[in-house]
Write a structure and sequence with these properties.
By secondary structure, the chain is α+β, with helices and mostly antiparallel strands. 57% of the residues lie in helices and 14% in strands. The chain has two domains: 41 residues, no CATH class; 87 residues, Arc Repressor Mutant, subunit A. Strand 1 and strand 2 form a beta hairpin. The chain is globular and about 45 Å long.
Length: 129
């Protein structure tokens, strides 16, 4: 049986490792607390951009999670953290799917270029298998 300390450590770690946590504000809107500062500051990486492009192209979190081979909560958390990092909403959440905002449209163009460049560089440098 796991010790109480292990369970406590596991619970706290799991809570902190997710970079953002929703909090309800007094005016009933939601804000997010960024715990990225605990791990060297907030960052954006190519995986965030891949998740963003998948959501954009699938027009929703559920279909994107299926194409990425992960669960929907991972995808939505990544997108929420990316929005927090960039300081803007990238998608309008609707009952059936998402619609990119103007900033989301701009990010999509740049994200596709960054991902293509990253993949090209990896193919050029990595030895053939």
């Amino acid at each position: 049986m796991p010790s109480v300390y292990f369970l406590l450590f596991f619970s706290i770690s799991r809570y902190l490792l997710s970079c953002c946590r929703p909090i309800k504000k007094a005016d009933s809107t939601t804000a997010f607390v960024d715990f990225g500062f605990l791990f060297g500051g907030a960052r954006m990486d190519v995986k965030d951009l891949r998740y963003f492009v998948a959501v954009y192209e699938a027009k929703g979190f559920s279909n994107a999670s299926k194409s990425l081979g992960t669960v929907q909560s991972n995808v939505s958390t990544r997108i929420r953290c990316l929005e927090d990092f960039l300081g803007t909403l990238l998608f309008e959440r609707r009952y059936r799917g998402v619609v990119p905002t103007e900033k989301g449209e701009k990010l999509y163009i740049h994200a596709k270029q960054v991902i293509a460049t990253f993949d090209h560089t990896e193919r050029a440098i990595r030895p053939p298998v």
